[in-house]
Specification:
The complex is a heterotrimer.
Chain A: H1 22-26, H2 29-36, H3 57-75, E1 83-84, E2 100-108, E3 111-120, E4 123-129, H4 142-146, H5 148-151, E5 161-162, E6 165-166, H6 169-186, E7 190-194, H7 200-212, E8 216-220, H8 227-237, E9 241-245, E10 252-256, H9 266-274, E11 287-292, H10 297-300, E12 304-307, H11 313-326, H12 353-366, E13 370-374, H13 380-393, E14 398-402, H14 409-420, E15 426-430, H15 434-437, H16 441-449, E16 453-458, E17 470-473, E18 482-486, E19 489-493, H17 506-516, H18 525-537, H19 546-556, E20 558-560, H20 575-584, E21 591-596, H21 609-613, E22 627-629, H22 631-637, E23 643-649, E24 652-660, E25 668-673, E26 703-705, E27 708-715, E28 735-737, H23 738-746, E29 768-773, H24 782-790, H25 798-802, E30 811-817, E31 824-830, E32 849-851, E33 857-859, H26 869-873, E34 880-881, E35 910-911, H27 917-929, H28 942-946, E36 952-956, H29 963-968, E37 973-974, E38 986-989, E39 991-993
Parallel strand pairs in A: 7-8, 7-15, 10-11, 10-13, 11-12, 15-16, 16-17, 21-25, 22-24, 28-39, 29-38
Antiparallel strand pairs in A: 2-3, 3-4, 5-6, 5-17, 9-14, 18-19, 19-20, 21-26, 23-24, 23-27, 29-36, 30-31, 32-33, 34-35, 37-38
Chain B: H1 3-30, H2 32-36, H3 49-55, H4 60-63, H5 78-85, H6 93-104, E1 110-111, H7 124-129, H8 135-138, H9 155-163
Helix pairs in contact in B: 5-6
Chain C: H1 6-33, E1 62-63
Classes of the chains: A alpha/beta, B mainly alpha, C mainly alpha.
Chain lengths: 1004, 187, 65
C-alpha cells in the first residue's frame, strides 16, 4: 500500500549569509544539493577502479568460496611470526618504542626556524618548533613541518656523479680541486651561487674559501624575495636589512600587500593573535589594515581591507607620510624631502576620503604602536615609503636586522653575461635552481654551457643539475650540522639521523675543496663549527668546560649570543626621487601580481606531496597555480571558474585555468610562483612556471603590466576544495564587529539545548574537549600539515582531490560574507566534533565506530567494512573514506616517515580525526606510570601543538581548572550546527573584527 | 523424478553438508589457540629462561627493560648478554656462538614467540606499572627451558582480565577495571 | 539442473567432496608439520633490497623525556 505524502511547496531558497563559492552565494540548485550530499558526484564513481577481468559472475563466486576457505586456513597462522631482532649494541639513548627528541634548526630563504625533531627507532617522524626558543615557543612554519618528506624523497640523488656516471667522493674532490686550482693559477674567476646565508659558520667558511681562492665570486640569491625589497632597503639603509615584525606591541598594523600571516612567520602570527582573543568586550584589540590587490591570507584576516592595484601602493605610502607630517605633525627624518608629494588620496586610487582620514588617524594615534609592513613583491619605492613611515612613527612593531646581502636579478644577470662571455672557469651552484627560477632561463642555460667546470650541490636532480657535470648530493638538513643567527640568539642545527645515502653536507664539500687548495682546515664541518663556537660564541672566562657548554647548547638548540646588533639608521636622502617615481608609475589595463606560492615558495617544495595537496588558504587550490581574477573582470571577459586562458606577456605565453576570487581588486590578476617544474615525479606537470614573467631589471619585477588574456575555449578540472564538504545549516560561522560583540555579550537569551531521545553519556574520568578561537585562527593550515604528519594521512593526487577524495582530517573552511568585491572572510578549522550524540555511531552495521567513556568518537579500522553510512550521516562532513589504495605501494624510504603509533589505513576503511588518541593514551599511561594525575596542557593533539596562533585549545572538560573548561564558558562561544542535537565536544569562539568606521564591514 | 526435485532433495543437502564440513574442519584446525598456544620454536641460541630467570633468579626487567618505559618490553641486545658472558661459561658452544655474532656485529635473529596482530597497539607500561606479574600472560617463564607461548592472547583474554583484573593485580591495587573501549588498543 | 547429465553431476559432487578433503589434509599438515619446516636461523646470503641504512646521528644530543 503506497503512502500518499501530501505535496509540500518547496521552501523558499534563502541564500546563506556566509557563503564559500559564488554558486553558494546565490544558492543555485547544484549548490543546494551539494549541501545534502556527503560525497561529490564523482566521488563514488568506480570508473577509476581497475577494469574487471574476463571472469564470469559464477566463476567469481566459485573462486570466492574456495579462496575464503583457504584464506581462513592460512591467515590465522600464529606461528612463524617471523623474527625479533634486538640491537647488537644498543645506543644508550634509544629505547625501542620510545621517541627521542632532538633540537635542531633549518632555514628557508632568510628565515631561521628553531625546531624540535621527534625521532622513533633512529629516524625523524615529526617536526615541531623548539619550545626552548623564546620567540617560537614550540611553533614553526608549515613548510618546515612538511620538509621531513624531503629527507625520505625516493628521488634524492644517492651518490656523487660526474658526467652522468657514479663516482666516489675522493675522485669528485680531486677533479674539482684540479679545476679550481687551474682557475686560481690562471686568475680566472669562479662563480659560487648559493641561497641566502644566515649561518655565521657557513659565512666564515665562505670567507675562508675566498681567502684560499681570491677569484671566487659569491652571489646569494633568493628567487622568492623581489628585487624591490632589496633595492628599497639598500636605498634607505645603505645595507641589506631584514624587517622582522614584532607585533606584540603593535596596536595598528598597515600591511601593503604584505602576507605576514601566511604561515611562514609563526612569531608574527602568535603576536597578532594574542591581541585578538578577547574574553570581554572593551578589552584592547589590535587593528589590521590591508591594502592589496590579490586577496592574501593576511588580507582575509584584515579588520579593514581596501582592494587596490599593487602599483599604486608606493604612491599611497608616500601620500600617507606626507599627510602624517602635515596634518598630524609627525616629524620627517633628516634629509627627507616630501615637498613634491601631494597630500590626500593619490589620484586614481579607489579609496574613500573618509577611510583615508581614518587610516591616518589610526596610525597617528598609535604612534610607536603602529607598524607598516611591505610585501616583498612590491616596488623598491613602496619599500622606501614603508621604511619612511616606520621611521616617522618611531615604530616598535618591527625589528630591523642587518642581513647578508642578496643578489638582485640585475646582479645575477651581470654574472650570467659574464658566464656567456667565457669569463668564469668554474661555477658551483649550491641549493639554487636558476635553470627553473631565473626569468630568462634560456639565457642562463646558454651561459652556463660556456663554463668549463659546472658543479651542482643539492638534494634531488633538478633543472639546473641537468646541465652540470659534477653532481654532489648533499645531506638533508635533518642529517647535517649547522648554526644560525636569530637576532640575539645563536641557534644550532644537529643531525637527527645518520646519512641515509652516500651524500655529504655541502659545507664538507667546500672543506674538501679548501684542503685541496692547500688550506689547513678540519676534516669535517662539525669540527669546524665547534671550533668556531669555541672561539667566538663560548663565553670567555666561563667556568663550564667547552664540551659541556656545547652539549647543553645542542640539548637546548640555542644559546644567547650577546646583544642583538644595533638597528641600522634610516637615511632619507633618496626619498624625494623615490616619491617622484612612485607617483609617476602608471598602470593601464590589467596588471599581474606575482607572489611566492603558498605550498611551493619558489618551486623548491614542488615535489612535496603534503604541501601540494594542502589547499591554498585563500583559493583552496591544490596541485596547480591558476590565474586569479576578480569577479568583475571575469564577468567582463565572460570567464568562469576553470576556463582556460592564454596569458601573453613580453614574449612569454602561458596556458592556465582561471579562478574567480572574491575580494580581488578589479584590474588585478595574480599568479603564484613555484609551479610548472619539469623534474621530479611529483612536481612535473603541476601548474605553470610563472618565473619567465618576472621582469629582471625592473624596480618591481613581480608587478607586471601590458599583459593580454584570451580565453582558449577549453575548460580544466580544478582540484579545488572550496566547494567540497558543504555544511547544511545557517549558524556555521559567527563573526562580530566589536560593537556587535558588545551587544551579543550582554544578550541574555541563549538557545536551550535541543532535547534528545538518547540517554546522556556518562564520562567517569576524563571528558576531552576542544575550543577553537576563530578570532585567533588565521587560516594558515599549519594544523592540517601537522595532522598529516602525525597521523600518516595519505596524499591522493590532483585527480582524486577533484573528486572530493582528499584525506585531510582537519581542514580549513573559508567563508565569505558581504559584497563579492570586498567580502569579510572567516576561516574555520573543521574536524571531527567528537559528538556526544554522534549521528555516525548509530548507523555503523559492524559497530566500527562508537563512543569512548572519555568522550571520543572511536574509529576502529580493523572492524570497518566500508559501507560509508557513517560518513553519510555526519553533518560536519569530516569523515574521510579510502576509496582507493593510497598507501600499499609505499616502500622505503617513503614509508619511513610514518608514525608507528598510528595505523596506516588500507582501501575500504573510513577514517577521521581521533583527537590524536595515541597521544592521549600515551599521556595517561605516562602519568599513571609516574604516579601522578594528568596536568592540563600535557596532552596536545598535533593540531593544538602546531597552531602558532594558539587558536586551538585542548583539555579535560571534567577538570574545572583546565584552560578548556574556562574557555568553554566564553560569551563568544557556540557550537556548530548545535540545533541538530549532536552535542559536539568542540566549542568555537566567534571571530572578531575591529573595523575602523561606523557600521564596519558587515552588511547586516 | 523431475530434475528440479533431484536438485532440491539430493544435491542441495549434500552440498550444504559439504560446506558445513569444510567450515567445521577448517575452523577446527584454524583456531588461533591451537597454533599459538604451545608454540615453542627452536631459537638460534638455546637460551634457557629456566636457568637465568629460574635458577639464577634474574629479574625479567634486567633484560626486558623496556617493559616499564615503552609499549614493547624488548629483547635484550647482545651487549646485555655479553655483560656477563664475556667471562662466564665461555666454554659453552652456545656462548661461543653468541660471542662470534657479537664481535662480528651480526644480529641474532630470535624467533618471535609472542606476537599480536598489527591492529593491536598493546602497551606494556600500564600493565607492568600496575604491578601485574609477567607470568600472568607469559606463563611460568622461569620454568621454561625453551620459551613457550602459553596464552593465545586473543581479544577475549585481554577483555576477560580487563573486566575483572583483581586476580592479576597486587592486593592493594586501587585499579578495579582496565579499559574496555576500543581506542585503548585500536588506533 | 534439469539439463545436466550424470557425468556432469558426478563431476560437481567430486569437487564438493574433494574440496573439504584436500583442505582438511592441508590443515592437518600445517598443524603437525609446521614445526619441522622452520625458517633457517641466519638469513641466506641473498642480496638485501636496496634500502637506506638507518644509522644513529653522531655526536647529537637528545632531549630527555
Amino acid at each position: 500500500m503506497k503512502t500518499r505524502i501530501p505535496d509540500t511547496p518547496e521552501p523558499p531558497v534563502v541564500p546563506p549569509q556566509h557563503w564559500r563559492t559564488l554558486d553558494e552565494r546565490v544558492e543555485t540548485p547544484a549548490a543546494r544539493r551539494a549541501a545534502q550530499d556527503e560525497f561529490l558526484p564523482g566521488a563514488v564513481d568506480i570508473s577509476d577502479l581497475p577494469a574487471p577481468s574476463e571472469l564470469s559472475r559464477r566463476g567469481f563466486l566459485g573462486i570466492l568460496g574456495g579462496a575464503a576457505a583457504l584464506a581462513a586456513t592460512v591467515a590465522c597462522d600464529r606461528k612463524a611470526q617471523g623474527t625479533i631482532v634486538p640491537y647488537t649494541r644498543r645506543p644508550l639513548e634509544v629505547i625501542p618504542g620510545v621517541a627521542n627528541y632532538y633540537a635542531s634548526a633549518t632555514q628557508e630563504g632568510r628565515r631561521v626556524y628553531s625546531l624540535l625533531v621527534k625521532t622513533r627507532e633512529g629516524r625523524p617522524i615529526h617536526i615541531t618548533g623548539n619550545d626552548e626558543h623564546p620567540g617560537f615557543k614550540g611553533k614553526t612554519g608549515l613548510r618546515v613541518v612538511a620538509d621531513i618528506l624531503r629527507l625520505y624523497d625516493p628521488e634524492r640523488l644517492r651518490g656523487p656523479k660526474a658526467d652522468g656516471r657514479s663516482i666516489a667522493w675522493p675522485e669528485a674532490d680531486r677533479r674539482l680541486v684540479a679545476a679550481l686550482a687551474d682557475a686560481k693559477a690562471a686568475g680566472k674567476p669562479v662563480l659560487l651561487l648559493t641561497g641566502a646565508v644566515a649561518s655565521p659558520s657557513r659565512r666564515a667558511l665562505l670567507a675562508d674559501l675566498k681567502a684560499a681562492l681570491p677569484t671566487l665570486e659569491h652571489l646569494a640569491w633568493e628567487p622568492a624575495i623581489g628585487d624591490g625589497a632589496l633595492d628599497g632597503t639598500r636605498a634607505v639603509f645603505g645595507t641589506d636589512v631584514m624587517a622582522v615584525p614584532r607585533l606584540e606591541q603593535a596596536k595598528v598594523i598597515l600591511a601593503l600587500a604584505s602576507d605576514f600571516l601566511s604561515g611562514e612567520d609563526p612569531e608574527a602570527m602568535a603576536a597578532f593573535a594574542a591581541q585578538r582573543r578577547l574574553s570581554q568586550p572593551g578589552q584592547p584589540m589590535n587593528r589590521l589594515w590591508v591594502l592589496e590587490g590579490a586577496l592574501s591570507l593576511t588580507g582575509s584576516n584584515a579588520d579593514e581591507r581596501i582592494p587596490l592595484r599593487p602599483t599604486q601602493l608606493a604612491a599611497v605610502a608616500f601620500a600617507l607620510a606626507k599627510d602624517l607630517h602635515t596634518r598630524h605633525g609627525l616629524a620627517l627624518p633628516a634629509g627627507v624631502d616630501l615637498s613634491a608629494v601631494p597630500g590626500g588620496v593619490p589620484p586614481g586610487v579607489d579609496l574613500p576620503t573618509e577611510t583615508w582620514n581614518r587610516l591616518l588617524a589610526d596610525l597617528a594615534s598609535a604612534g610607536q604602536g603602529a607598524v607598516v609592513l611591505c610585501g616583498s613583491s612590491l616596488s623598491a619605492e613602496a619599500h622606501q615609503g614603508t621604511h619612511l613611515l616606520n621611521a616617522m612613527l618611531g615604530s616598535r612593531g618591527q625589528e630591523l636586522r642587518s642581513a647578508d646581502p642578496l643578489a638582485t636579478l640585475t646582479e645575477l644577470t651581470t654574472a650570467i653575461q659574464g658566464m656567456a662571455a667565457g669569463r668564469y672557469a668554474a661555477a658551483i651552484l649550491w641549493e639554487v635552481n636558476p635553470a627553473y627560477a631565473f626569468p630568462a632561463a634560456q639565457a642562463w642555460q646558454e651561459a652556463l654551457a660556456k663554463v668549463p667546470c659546472r658543479a651542482w650541490i643539492g638534494l634531488a636532480e633538478d633543472e639546473t643539475a641537468a646541465q652540470c657535470s659534477f653532481l654532489l648530493p648533499e645531506h638533508h638538513w635533518l642529517e647535517a650540522w649547522n648554526d644560525y643567527e636569530d637576532g640575539a640568539l645563536a641557534v644550532l642545527q644537529q643531525p637527527t639521523i645518520g646519512a641515509l645515502y652516500d651524500t655529504r653536507q655541502g659545507e664538507d664539500t667546500l672543506l674538501a675543496l679548501l684542503r685541496g687548495l692547500g688550506a689547513t682546515v678540519p676534516g669535517d664541518y662539525h669540527t669546524y663549527l665547534k671550533a668556531r663556537w669555541q672561539r667566538t660564541v663560548y663565553p670567555s672566562g666561563s667556568l663550564v668546560p667547552f664540551e659541556r657548554y656545547f652539549e647543553v647548547a645542542l640539548h637546548d638548540g640555542l644559546v644567547k649570543d650577546g646583544q642583538a646588533p644595533a638597528a641600522p639608521a634610516f637615511k632619507g636622502t633618496g626619498i624625494a626621487d623615490a616619491a617622484r617615481q612612485a607617483f609617476a608609475a602608471q598602470a593601464d589595463g590589467m596588471e599581474l601580481f606575482l607572489h611566492p606560492g603558498f605550498a611551493t615558495l619558489d618551486g623548491r617544495h614542488a615535489g612535496n606531496g603534503w604541501l601540494q595537496e594542502t589547499p591554498d588558504p585563500v583559493t583552496k587550490m591544490t596541485w596547480d597555480n591558476p590565474l586569479l581574477l576578480s569577479v568583475a573582470d571575469a564577468q567582463r571577459l565572460h570567464l568562469h571558474d576553470g576556463d582556460e586562458v592564454e596569458l601573453a606577456l613580453a614574449g612569454t605565453t602561458l596556458r592556465l585555468p582561471v579562478v574567480l576570487q572574491p575580494g580581488q581588486a578589479a584590474g588585478v590578476v595574480s599568479l603564484a610562483l613555484g609551479y610548472g617544474r619539469t623534474t621530479g615525479e611529483v612536481a612535473t606537470g603541476k601548474g605553470v612556471n610563472a618565473f619567465p614573467l618576472v621582469a629582471a631589471g625592473s624596480p618591481a619585477p613581480f608587478l607586471r603590466t601590458g599583459l593580454q588574456l584570451r580565453a582558449t575555449g577549453n575548460t580544466r578540472t580544478l582540484s579545488r576544495t572550496q566547494a567540497h564538504h558543504r555544511l547544511d545549516g545557517q549558524d556555521i560561522v559567527r563573526t562580530f564587529s566589536l560593537a556587535e560583540y558588545a551587544q551579543e555579550a550582554t544578550a541574555q537569551e541563549k538557545a536551550a539545548e535541543p532535547t534528545s531521545l538518547y540517554p546522556d553519556q556518562r564520562f567517569p574520568n576524563h571528558k576531552w574537549g576542544m575550543v577553537i578561537d576563530l578570532s585567533a585562527c588565521v587560516g594558515c593550515a599549519g594544523c592540517s600539515v601537522s595532522c598529516q604528519s602525525e597521523n600518516n594521512i595519505a596524499v591522493v593526487g590532483p585527480e582524486q582531490v577533484a573528486k572530493g577524495r582528499e584525506m585531510h582530517w582537519i581542514r580549513l573552511d573559508t567563508y565569505y560574507e558581504g559584497p563579492v568585491d570586498n567580502p569579510t572572510v572567516v576561516h574555520q578549522p573543521m574536524l571531527c566534533q567528537q559528538c556526544d550524540d554522534a549521528p555516525c555511531e548509530n548507523v555503523c552495521p559492524v559497530n566500527a565506530t562508537n563512543h569512548s567513556p572519555e568522550g571520543l568518537n572511536q574509529m576502529v579500522y580493523n572492524r570497518c567494512v566500508g559501507t560509508r553510512y557513517c560518513a553519510n550521516n555526519c553533518p560536519y562532513k569530516v569523515r574521510r573514506f579510502n576509496f582507493l589504495e593510497y598507501t600499499a605501494d609505499k616502500t622505503e624510504p617513503e614509508s619511513l616517515v610514518y608514525n608507528p603509533e598510528v595505523t596506516v589505513r588500507p582501501r575500504g576503511v573510513m577514517e577521521k580525526c581521533t583527537f590524536c588518541v595515541q597521544r592521549i593514551e600515551d599521556g595517561k599511561i605516562r602519568a599513571m606510570g609516574e604516579g601522578r594525575p594528568l596536568r592540563d596542557g600535557e596532552i596536545t593533539p598535533a593540531c593544538v601543538a602546531a597552531c602558532p596562533a594558539e587558536a586551538i585549545v585542548f583539555g579535560d572538560l571534567k577538570d574545572p581548572d583546565s584552560r578548556v573548561s574556562q574557555l568553554v564558558k566564553s560569551n563568544r562561544g557556540y557550537k556548530v550546527l548545535e540545533e541538530l542535537g549532536t552535542r559536539p565536544a568542540i566549542t568555537y569562539l566567534a571571530d572578531l573584527k575591529n573595523p575602523a568606521l561606523e557600521g564596519g564591514r558587515h552588511a547586516k | 523424478m523431475h530434475p528440479f526435485d533431484r536438485a532440491t532433495r539430493f544435491v542441495l543437502p549434500v552440498g550444504a553438508l559439504a560446506v558445513l564440513l569444510t567450515v567445521l574442519t577448517v575452523g577446527w584446525f584454524v583456531q588461533p589457540d591451537r597454533f599459538a598456544k604451545g608454540y615453542a620454536p627452536q631459537q638460534p641460541i638455546p637460551f634457557s629462561h629456566q636457568l637465568h630467570a629460574g635458577v639464577m633468579k634474574m629479574q625479567c626487567l634486567y633484560c626486558h627493560s623496556g617493559a616499564t618505559r615503552s609499549r614493547s618490553a624488548g629483547v635484550p641486545s647482545a651487549e646485555v648478554c655479553m655483560g656477563c658472558h664475556r667471562v662466564t661459561r665461555t666454554d659453552s658452544p652456545a656462548i661461543q656462538k653468541l660471542t662470534r655474532l657479537y664481535n662480528a656485529g651480526q644480529p641474532i635473529l630470535w624467533k618471535r614467540v609472542h606476537t599480536l596482530p598489527d591492529h593491536v597497539y598493546f602497551d606494556h607500561r600500564p600493565h607492568v606499572n600496575a604491578g601485574i606479574a609477567c607470568q600472568t600472560c607469559h606463563g611460568q617463564v622461569q620454568d621454561m627451558p625453551v620459551l613457550t607461548r602459553v596464552m593465545g592472547m586473543r581479544m577475549g583474554n585481554c577483555l576477560g582480565c580487563h573486566r575483572d583484573p583483581h586476580a592479576a593485580l597486587p592486593k592493594n591495587s586501587p585499579i578495579t577495571r582496565g579499559p574496555e573501549y576500543c581506542s585503548a588498543c585500536h588506533r | 539442473m534439469g539439463t545436466l547429465n550424470r557425468r556432469e553431476i558426478l563431476g560437481r559432487l567430486t569437487a564438493l567432496v574433494a574440496g573439504p578433503l584436500l583442505l582438511s589434509r592441508k590443515a592437518l599438515d600445517l598443524a603437525v608439520r609446521a614445526g619441522r619446516n622452520a625458517p633457517p636461523e641466519t638469513p641466506p646470503g641473498v642480496h638485501p633490497p636496496r634500502r637506506p641504512t638507518l644509522a644513529p646521528p653522531s655526536h647529537s644530543v637528545p632531549r630527555r623525556g
